[in-house]
Prior knowledge:
Order of helices and strands of chain B: HHHHHHHHHH
Radius of gyration of chain B: 22 Å
Order of helices and strands of chain A: EEEHEEHEHHHEHEHEEHHH
CATH topology of chain A: Rossmann fold
Structural class of chain A: alpha/beta
CATH architecture of chain A: 3-Layer(aba) Sandwich
Strand content of chain B: under 5%
Radius of gyration of chain A: 21 Å
Low-confidence stretches of chain B: none
Number of domains of chain B: 1
Oligomer: heterodimer
Shape of chain B: globular
Distance between the termini of chain B: 57 Å
Largest interface: A-B, 22 and 16 residues
Helix content of chain A: 25-40%
Largest sheet of chain A: 6 strands, mixed
Strand content of chain A: 15-25%
Largest sheet of chain B: none
Number of strands of chain A: 10
Strand order of the largest sheet of chain A: 6-7-8-3-9-10
Number of domains of chain A: 1
Structural class of chain B: mainly alpha
Distance between the termini of chain A: 63 Å
Low-confidence stretches of chain A: none
Amino acid sequence: MLDDALVHVENLRFDYGGKPVLQGINMRIPRGKVVAIMGGSGCGKTTLLRCIGGQLRPTGGKIVVDGQTVSTMNQSGIYAMRRRMGMLFQFGALFTDMSVFENVAFPLREHTDLPESLIRDLVLMKLQAVGLRGARDLMPNSLSGGMARRVALARAVALDPSLIMYDEPFTGLDPISLGVIGQLIRRLNDALGATSIMVTHDVQESLLIVDYIFFISEGKVVAEGTPDEIRHSSDPFVHQFVHAEADGPVPFHIKATPIMDDLFGGRHA
Amino acid sequence: MLNPVNLLRQLGSRMVEGIWRLGYATRFFGAVLLNSGAALRRYPLTLREIYFSGVLSLIIIMVSGLFVGLVLGLQGYEILQRYGSAEQLGTMVALSLLRELGPVVAALLFASRAGSAITAEIGLMKATEQLKAMDMMAVDPVARVVVPRFWGGVIAMPILATLFSAMGIFGGWLIGVVAIGVDDGSFWSQMQASVEFGHDVWNGLVKSFVFGAAVALIAVFEGYDSEPTAEGVSRAITRTVVTSALAILALDFVLTSFMFRGTS
């Protein structure tokens, strides 16, 4: 049962400047699934993604991707692993000095010796998959946010990765673009036979497309389950998150002295 | 608050920070050199950067060179004719440009025109996560982005300085020979007789090569090390221009004291 998971995270800890961000995360991400990692802003979910991609070294615990331990790899090992990974950044991170076509062609040109005609065909196929074959000659600064995200998605899957990671793929998109990106994430994952990890706080969209969800709060996994289990969860944190309630286990007010003390400086007593 | 202990502490922390940054820059330079072989084999990348930092700086370099030459012609003639040696004008213009003004002024202009552009470009690529994205695609940003820009600058600088000197000599000739009426033949023949290739032209080229390396390194380092915000990038650009100018002038003194020790 252990062997069918592509990513294992065991007791992962990460400190940033002496402050613990992740405090013992355990998760296994099965092959072929789309998994969402959710939590409020600043809960450490992006840090977790960076640790899986080898951009950050964890303080403790270990991460195993496809049988290899990321935390003990050297730089060339990490680069070899990343060739089988695709990552979509929050705002796409397209190369602004290259056209849409060149952006998608970039990983192919860097990592393969394919002839130009084959690169062209591959790029056009990837762009067709995200519906932007007609935008191939545009520059990134003339794309809308949703289109840029789709180009970045085409670039992320250019080398047919076995693991695709998404950092807040829905942030700042209109409802239509949001739905399009959601559907693309699901369809590309299934068409490529890949595994996807998505860091997001968009509950409603994620519940529609993912297979499994982890909730993270204060550096720990506080709840997990399939979308159905999450929808019907009685866990107060999950309930607050899914129903977007302002107050609950995550309090509306951050810790402070009683307001009367602040306003009247103890004079009211 | 004027607390001497606090002042001392601040001074200390500034010093430590400065030394730390110098060490980081040195390691960065090491990484640039280490990645140079593989990156230079893909010469189209470097050619592109020579175009951006070299060809696009041509106008400002050539126009400035012309003006510096015009001024040298005027000032030089004014002084030389006091001693009755106006025919030495060609020598004076050529030596000033080839030894000092060509490499130094061209490098200062290069730092503000191309150096700032390099810092801005790399800084913005960092701020928009393009460098991180590249790194996640298993492409080393130092090899792919930094090294071509560094060598582009190093290669472009001596060529620009040479063009600057050539334009300056042309400007000196325009003022001296065409406008004032110094003898054309003695202008060139005196220059030919007193300018040595090894001593003057070559040393000038070595200077501009060193300045090019310094400016290019400062520019790529400041961009790569910039804080990934709009404010951070603008501060990095300022630092590039200021540090480059200081580095050029200080290096010029060091190089000059090795090259020209009053022996000729």
